Amino acid sequence: MQIYHIPWINTPVRTVLAIWHQLTKTELPVSGAGQWQLPQTPASAVAGQWQLPQTPLGQWQLPQTLASASTELAKCSVLMRERSRVEETIHAMQRAGAGNLQVISDFDMTLTRFAHNGKRVPTTHNILDNRLLINEDCTKKIRALLNTYYPIEIDPSRSAEEKLPLMVEWWTKVHELLIEQRIRKDMLAQAVKESSAMLRDGYKVFFDHLAEQQIPLLIFSAGVGDVLEEVIQQNHVFHPNVHIISNYMDFDQTGVLRAFKGQLIHTFNKREGALSHAAGLTELQGRPNVLLLGDSLGDLTMADGVSEHENILTIGFLNDQVEERKESYINSFDIVLVKDETMDVPNAVLRHITSSGNGK
Ligand SMILES: Nc1ccn([C@@H]2O[C@H](COP(=O)(O)O)[C@@H](O)[C@H]2O)c(=O)n1
What we know:
- Belongs to the pyrimidine 5'-nucleotidase family.
- The structure is a single chain.
- This protein is of the alpha/beta class and 360 residues long.
- It is 37% helix and 14% strand.
- The strands form 3 sheets. A 7-stranded mixed β-sheet has the order 1-11-10-9-2-5-6, sandwiched between helices. A two-stranded antiparallel ribbon has the order 3-4.
- Helix 2 packs antiparallel against helix 12 (344-353) and helix 5 runs antiparallel to helix 6.
- The longest helix is centred in the middle third of the chain and has 21 residues, at 160-180.
- 38% of the residues are buried.
- Ligand L45E5XJ5 binds next to helix 4, helix 5, helix 6 and strand 5.
């Protein structure tokens, strides 16, 4: 007898089969009690074992997108508080289709890698640490500020309320230092080229797939918008479906940095930006399902501007201080990816959500 095996740890076979039948839209007979009954093949079904349809080669068939999502979610770097809620949400989003979906993502250390070959990958702020743009003294000051405030940003023993004024202090001091340097707009592209900025493995599939499916991607970043745009431009993924909310530089007529535009965005005030900016974006209207990606608990408020949302699935990258922060991440995000430098899980989830359903 062949043994039916799905690498979705602890998932009852019946659940997977029920989802599979929903996906293939075949009618399943319903028992008197309203329970799904799965078709049995009398000759080979032993003690209530259910069979999946076989290919001519005798391989068990499972919809490829579901198999791939389940394989990704079964990795030991994937943590979930409530697996059944994740499955139900993904399934509901898949039924609603690509036309009802929007993706909201943080940028630094979410779409970009946290580290590569044991070295930290620079954030958009840190990409500016280049002699083309700032002098040595400024570099020293910005690094000292990073060493002071970054540990506070990720400290699990402090509340967001406690961190908030300190984050404003950090961002404000750094922006003032950058303005003093009279950074030139025409040097930004070269600084990005010379940097070791890196998007996560699988980024191209992620961006291209969303563009093909005409799913809006809102990148909501407390980094530097001009640098962020240059990073995605140089990686050839700045597609028309991409919208960005971030801290943008304000250059004077000669192309010299003189200020930062609009209200400051830092890690713990994204809710305000979501309500004032994201909520007004027409491209996001009428899309009640949200896939949200972030690396900070502050990122969870990025979808607060979505009115009449139906399903929100949150994926959190836990890059740093893993043991100290694991519990709070599991309690806050639906899916937590521990030290995962790839887009494999978001890509598998997206592939499945967009595998069929009602396009708009
Ligand atoms: N001077 C600074 C200020 C912040 N950062 C880091 O950038 C991240 C913000 O960008 P998101 O795209 O993640 O919103 C934040 O997590 C800070 O750690 C920095 O490197 N330098």
